[in-house]
Amino acid sequence: xIDGENYNLKIQLAQELEKSAKFQRHNxxxxxxxxxxxxxxMRYAKEHNINPPNKDRLWESINQIHSLMDKTEGVMFLPxxxxxxxxxxxxxxxxKNITIDTVF
Length: 104
Hints:
Layout: H1 4-47, H2 55-72, H3 81-89, H4 100-103
Helix pairs in contact: 1-2
């Protein structure tokens, strides 16, 4: 039997875990939007013959973003909303492996 103190501690831990999972989902969404935005900008620039300043820095930023996300991978075990959708539809989850040379 769980006494009141242990029960309250378990409730608090569950609440903190849920907050952490929500934070992870938000980070994943920000990651997805940021990467998509950078790729959109670079594709737009290429299609309109625009040479953006610090283009190399943008590509370095993508690598840094990937590195940061890789460091957090496996920290939380709850899937993101898009990963949950993919699992129910049977479609593969999106990959973070991107070959920049083939895109631009």
